């Protein structure tokens, strides 16, 4: 299905177009070709094609959605999608004036993008691309057919565009966090002596799915082990359980960690989790719009250094949204490979951050809390704010 700009009605973009125009100007980009599923979803106002939600591969190629956006000219925008997306457009029209639902792979998608760029007079422009999300064959085709064009990395501009969440996005992130918390607490409550890691993970998958989440992963430890991969290891009396899960609600990620124990926690366990909690609270106390992210990190690290378990405990924080590590970028290569370019910049209301403290105790095992905070003007709102103590397994 092809819809030309002259045939489609003009529709306002479902994002802050003025902000995107400014970011593109700063990056030296005339026209954008967004090709990642998270950024095409964002630029399309939340739309993601269900047929390729789990896997991109088909036949000899893969699904490659493309949103074309010209700086200052949203009326020149286009969406290049799979042939089956014509039905999606008929039921809920895409906002872009041009829609090309006609592709089955990367090369035909790139060719349609080239045709559109030529039509709007931008074949030799500065073209913003997402290098990690543009297949090599598609990029080669673009380069061969767009003589005089210069390709510019648009990754940073798109990250900045998504950094401040709208109220609708915040509601989805909150719901994702709440549903994951409910799922983890329900899973811990029914796990019992002899329950294996593989069984507990499968139970969590079903709990999340039944609540309307798309299950992403579960990292689980039992007892003294620090190994978070699925295995036949069984839960034993007196042992701890660490359950860290990511679930997806309409494209938005919830990512939290909670603790369980099979039986009553002893005094040592109470003290160890209290150490983790004190580090979390030190970080929370510095979160508000206008405060630098480095203030939160410094407060947490100061508390960490005074902890009796400092030698085997770590603090980390990162941005959250459509992907699990996005702006604000607060810590460098810790552990994900990127620069903490936002550490000294003020936090802004609407940013969402994950705050996590991990203790790898040599005898009692993996003890961790991970929480999700939405930055507000006077502080923060925590999503999924329950189950942060010791949660008992089934007796």
Automatic annotation (TrEMBL):
It comes from Sinorhizobium garamanticum. InterPro entries: Creatin/AminoP/Spt16_N (IPR029149), Creatinase/aminopeptidase-like (IPR036005), Creatinase_N (IPR000587), Pept_M24 (IPR000994), Peptidase_M24B (IPR050659). Residues 172-377 form the Peptidase M24 domain. Residues 18-164 form the Creatinase N-terminal domain. It comes from the Bacteria. Pfam families: Creatinase_N (PF01321), Peptidase_M24 (PF00557). Coiled coil: none annotated. This is Xaa-Pro peptidase family protein.
């Amino acid at each position: 299905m092809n819809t030309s700009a002259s045939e489609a009605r003009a529709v306002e973009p479902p994002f802050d177009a003025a902000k995107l125009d400014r970011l593109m100007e700063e990056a030296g980009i005339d026209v954008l070709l967004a090709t990642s599923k998270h950024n095409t979803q964002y630029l399309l106002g939340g739309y993601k094609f269900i047929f390729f939600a789990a896997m991109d591969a088909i036949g000899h190629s893969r699904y490659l959605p493309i949103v074309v956006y010209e700086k200052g000219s949203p009326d020149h925008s286009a969406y290049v999608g799979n042939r089956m997306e014509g039905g999606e457009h008929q039921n809920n029209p895409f906002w872009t004036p041009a829609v090309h639902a006609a592709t089955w792979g990367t090369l035909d998608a790139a060719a349609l993008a080239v045709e559109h760029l030529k039509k709007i007079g931008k074949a030799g422009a500065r073209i913003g691309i997402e290098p990690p999300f543009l297949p090599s064959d598609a990029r080669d085709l673009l380069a061969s057919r767009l003589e005089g064009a210069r390709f510019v990395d648009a990754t940073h501009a798109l990250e900045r565009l998504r950094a401040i969440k709208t109220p609708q996005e915040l509601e989805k992130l909150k719901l994702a966090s709440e549903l994951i918390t409910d799922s983890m607490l329900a899973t811990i409550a029914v796990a019992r002596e002899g329950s294996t890691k593989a069984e507990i993970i499968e139970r969590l998958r079903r709990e999340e799915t039944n609540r309307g989440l798309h299950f992403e992963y579960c990292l689980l430890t039992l007892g003294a082990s620090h190994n978070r991969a699925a295995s036949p290891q069984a839960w034993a009396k007196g042992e701890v359980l660490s359950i860290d899960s990511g679930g997806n609600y309409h494209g938005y990620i919830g990512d939290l960690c909670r603790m369980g124990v099979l039986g009553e926690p002893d005094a040592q366990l109470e003290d160890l989790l209290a150490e983790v909690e004190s580090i979390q609270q030190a970080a929370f106390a510095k979160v508000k719009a206008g405060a630098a992210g480095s203030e939160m990190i410094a407060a947490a690290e100061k508390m960490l250094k005074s902890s009796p378990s400092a030698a085997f405990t770590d603090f980390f924080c990162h941005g959250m949204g459509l992907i699990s590590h996005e702006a604000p970028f607060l810590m460098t290569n810790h552990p994900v490979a990127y620069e903490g370019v936002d550490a000294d910049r003020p936090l802004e209301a609407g940013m969402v951050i994950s705050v996590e403290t991990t203790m790898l105790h040599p005898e009692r095992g993996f003890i961790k809390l991970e929480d999700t905070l939405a930055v507000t003007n006077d502080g923060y709102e925590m999503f999924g704010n329950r189950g942060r103590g010791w949660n008992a397994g089934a007796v």
